[in-house]
Structures are given as C-alpha cells and as structure tokens.
Amino acid sequence: MLKVSRLTKSFKGRGWRANDVLAVDDVSFELARGGSLGVVGESGSGKSTLARMVSRLIEITGGGIEFDGSDIGAVSPSSFVRRPERRKIQHVFQDTGENLTPHLTARAAIADPIRRLAGLTDERQIRHKVDTLATSVALSPELLNRYPHQLSGGQKARVGIARALASAPDLLILDEPTAALDVSVQAAILKLLHHLRSEFGLAYLFISHDIEVVRLMCEDVIIMRLGRVVEQGPTRQILESPQSDYGRALLEAVPRLNDRRHASSA
Ligand SMILES: Nc1ncnc2c1ncn2[C@@H]1O[C@H](COP(=O)(O)OP(=O)(O)OP(=O)(O)O)[C@@H](O)[C@H]1O
C-alpha cells in the first residue's frame, strides 16, 4: 500500500554560514495494507519529518512516496488536500489534545472532517456518524458537548483519534500519539489503537521515541539516527538481536524492574 523509496529532506540553514540540516537521509520502507511499522530513535533523528513527508504536510527534497500505486511524493502539499488519497491517509499529531480548536465542542471537532473529507452534508447523518465514531473510541455521549478545556488528556486523545477515523482512512500516521499522557491513560489509548487497527483494517506508521511502545504496537520497526536508518526489520527480531551499536545502546537504555544495573542502593 505504501512504498517509500530513498526519501530525503533537507532544511535550509538559518543565519550566515549556517549549514543545511539533512533531517531525513535516504530512507526506504514498505508498509502493507493492515500492517504496522514503528519508527524509533532519539530526539532529532528525523522521525516527525519522515511522518510529515508521508502525510504530504511538507515538501520532499528527494526520493519517492507511492500510495496505492500513485506517486504522491510528486504532489505538493497544497495540491494534496484536493487529492482522493488525502482522506485515506490521516495524521494523528503529537499531543492530539493541544491540536483541537478551543472554541469547537468535541462533537463539532469530529463533525468537521466528516463534512470536509467524507463529504456528508445531511445534518442527521453527520450527527449519527459522530455518535458512531464516539462509540468506536469509547467516548461517552455526554462528553461530546464539551470544549477541549473541559476534557481530560485521554478524552482529548480520543476526540483526535475519532477525527482521524472520520474519513475511513487506510493509513494512520501516529506521531507520538500518547507522549503527553500519563502512564495509565497512555496504556488505555494504546489498547484502543490496537483494537481499532483490527476493527477497521488500518495500517499504522507509528512514530515513537519509546521502544517499548513500538514493541507492543508494531510488527516491523525502523530505528533511525541522525536522519538515517540504522536498523530495519521485524520488531521481535530487531529487539532480540540488534545488529548496530546504536540499536544495542537504545535497548540497553530501557529500564527494567528486574534489572540490577538500574537498582539504587540508596
Ligand atoms: N522546519 C524545520 N526547519 C529546520 N530544521 C528542522 C525543521 N524541522 C525539523 N528540523 C530539524 O530536522 C532534524 C529532525 O527533526 P525531527 O523533528 O524530524 O526529529 P524527531 O526524531 O521527530 O525528534 P523529536 O522526537 O524531538 O520530535 C532536527 O535536527 C531538527 O532540528
């Protein structure tokens, strides 16, 4: 369904003598319909830039992006909004809650992509669709009349996910969807995402700095460093026996409860 070939992105340096930043450097991968690919790496490794290119939010510098056989990498972000693929690829932003418009209720926020992307105009049908989506993301009906500041972080995340599902997408690009949530809420949202993937037959491109989240959510993984892929393959295999020094270091940095190295004598 998605084929990314030799994708690169460089940002112009700012100020005098500033060097350009090669944020993504020669990244290739494929993602099958219904598949899940995690992208992990430390801050600044290029994960969000990669995700934003695939969502066609930003121009690419080089390489290609093919979706369902169309060369969407060649489409500029401003033209992409009018393309049929636009509703098939949905981007769930980091800190979803903060991306909700403050003066729109949850109902209005979910209705917006139903009108804009799914093309429904009948108000009764729109209302019904909002109710169905709210049920899918386990958001109680009484919360639909609330504004973002009246919702918890987890509830706002559910609204953001419902918005992404409104256009019946095939691919969700999830950019650190739970990074801003506390641990128990994070677990509930990950469980929801896991369940939605099989319910709706979605594919996930899942960006995270947390390798444990990717272990839970993704069949395949890419480890990035300084814009480049350092490891790539089935998650279980890569996490069991990382081949690169960086992959090993990333895994060793994960704290474990039964790990004496991290125990404190204090
Ligand atoms: N709009 C921009 N202009 C200039 N440089 C940018 C821009 N966006 C990102 N960069 C640079 O590109 C590199 C990759 O950034 P990116 O945000 O993709 O990394 P990341 O792995 O997603 O990091 P984080 O986990 O902190 O979000 C960084 O060096 C960053 O400073």
From TrEMBL:
One of its GO terms (biological process) is transmembrane transport. One of its GO terms (molecular function) is ATP binding. The keyword Membrane does not apply. Pfam families: ABC_tran. Keywords: ATP-binding, Nucleotide-binding, Transport. Residues 2-251 form the ABC transporter domain. The keyword rRNA-binding does not apply. SMART domains: AAA. Involved in beta-(1-->2)glucan export. Transmembrane domains (TMD) form a pore in the inner membrane and the ATP-binding domain (NBD) is responsible for energy generation. Belongs to the ABC transporter superfamily. PANTHER family: D,D-DIPEPTIDE TRANSPORT ATP-BINDING PROTEIN DDPF-RELATED, TRANSPORT ATP-BINDING PROTEIN. This is ABC transporter ATP-binding protein. It comes from Bradyrhizobium commune.
